[in-house]
Design goal:
With 433 residues, this protein is of the alpha+beta class. The protein has 13 helices and 17 strands. The strands form 3 sheets. Strands 6, 10, 11, 12, 13, 14, 15, 16 and 17 form a 9-stranded mixed sheet that branches. Helix 4 packs across helix 6. The longest helix has 23 residues. The protein is elongated. The two termini are 38 Å apart.
Length: 433
């Protein structure tokens, strides 16, 4: 067999009329005895290979007949245009070799339960829908970095092991740190605020951890979060930044993930309507809207998942709910100077039942007020002395938000559970593989 350099399947539409070699795996096959149809994948995409028994060697046809699902293969052939095919091309195979024969591949075309698939997550990644979702995730991750790079933000890597928590320690994973308590980070925000004083515009993007005993489709124990923090940015500017960020990411997915969205059967018309401006609704008005829809809720209550869905479904685009009761929010959130009972905080709720995808606020920049809030929340003052230093030495107004990558990807892909938006999900009582 010729040892020509392999060609990626994703690049085949650029090579119509050329003879190429593809290295990959068998995703499916059928044969009439004279003509074989192979579904080949190589990680970059998939393509149908058509094999005529009369046009290949006996050895090649024997390999075609014996090849099994997920065997490793080498196929050589002519790239032909086929407008019926998802990729627009097919491979007219002239030579075919099995380089590793797989036996008893556990995931078959039959229906498997979710529990079984999660036990075989390391193999389930190969399926077309999982593959598509994770390619969307990769594109969103790159788009996030591009968005901030183009706006002159500096990437700051916040620590994963921390001595203090943003909002108490009840939902944190605790570990021993040479005799002291440490926690897996639930947010990089506190470390970004000092960095904003050094660089002006900063962001972090990495894994975060929440020890919430929750089995809902919206929660994972380990997830990735992106958090920008901006010096001298006040609340109105923060809302505009969140709006720009989301519309930019949605546009990027629509532009660069068309094959993946098609594989996932995503209704892209719903994403195409995600344009500025987003509707904005105060918490107080949101409560009144929920009451008008028959929800038993009072001012000061938290919104549950069903409440968020009702609010979001009242609009065609993401809705920004702002100015929440200060008593229910984190200690570092700036009170509204016109109404100190509410905090300058926002949640951006996605449509179609995907809930909160962004949460953020303007931060308290007055030293004494922040110290009082730490004490009110019964947090250890000594653990936050460094955080108070930001207000002691050159204090400044600043704001930021956080967005969970998995929730955003689930929304883009139209997936019902976050477990399919991360390669190896960590869920309640589930850490294998």
């Amino acid at each position: 067999m010729s040892q020509a350099p392999p060609t990626t399947i994703r690049s085949l539409p650029e090579k119509i009329g050329q003879e190429v070699t593809v290295l990959g795996w068998l995703a499916g096959k059928r044969s009439s005895g004279k003509i074989g149809f192979l579904q080949l994948r190589d990680g970059s995409g998939s393509v149908q290979g058509v094999v005529s028994r009369a046009e290949v060697s006996e050895a090649a046809w024997a390999d075609l007949e014996s090849v099994t699902l997920e065997s490793t293969v080498r196929a050589r052939g002519l790239v032909k245009e086929d407008r019926r095919a998802p990729s627009g091309v097919e491979l007219q195979v002239t030579d075919f070799t099995v380089t590793f024969l797989t036996e008893d591949y556990p995931i078959t075309p039959k229906e498997h339960g979710t529990a079984f698939l999660m036990e075989h997550r390391h193999l389930w990644l190969r399926s077309s829908r999982q593959h598509a979702a994770l390619r969307v995730r990769s594109e969103v991750s790159q788009a996030i970095r591009d968005f901030f790079y183009q706006r002159d933000f500096v990437n700051i890597d916040s620590p994963i092991l921390t001595p203090a928590a943003c909002e108490g320690t009840s939902t944190l994973f605790e570990t021993d740190y040479f005799g002291d308590k440490a926690y897996l980070s639930q947010s990089g925000q506190l470390y970004l605020e000092p960095a904003a004083a050094a660089f002006g515009r900063v962001y972090c993007f990495g894994p975060t951890f929440r020890a919430e005993k929750s089995k809902t489709r919206r929660h994972l124990m380990e997830f990735w979060m992106v958090e920008p923090e901006v010096a001298f940015l006040e609340f109105e500017g923060l809302m505009a930044l969140a709006e720009d960020f989301v519309t930019s990411l949605v546009g990027r997915v629509l532009d660069r993930c068309k094959p993946e969205l098609a594989t996932l059967e995503r209704d892209t018309s719903k994403l195409e309507g995600i344009v500025k401006p987003f509707p904005r609704l105060s918490y107080t008005d949101a409560v009144e809207l929920l009451k008008s829809k028959g929800v038993a809720i009072e001012w000061g209550d938290d919104f549950g998942a069903d409440d968020e869905t009702l609010l979001a479904n009242s609009f065609e685009r993401p809705v920004m709910v702002h100015r929440y009761p200060a008593a229910s929010k984190a200690f570092y959130m700036q009170p509204d100077p016109e109404n100190p009972k509410v905090a300058l905080a926002l949640d951006l709720l996605a449509p179609e039942g995907y809930g909160e995808i962004i949460g953020g606020s303007q931060r308290i920049h007055d030293h004494d007020l922040l110290k009082a809030r730490i004490e009110e929340h019964a947090l250890p003052l000594e653990a936050f002395q460094w955080y108070l230093d930001v207000r002691r030495y050159g204090s400044f107004p600043h704001s930021g938000f956080g967005m969970g990558l998995e929730r955003f990807v689930a929304w883009m892909c139209g997936l019902s559970h976050l477990r399919e938006t991360i390669p190896y999900p960590r869920m309640l009582y589930k850490i294998y593989p």
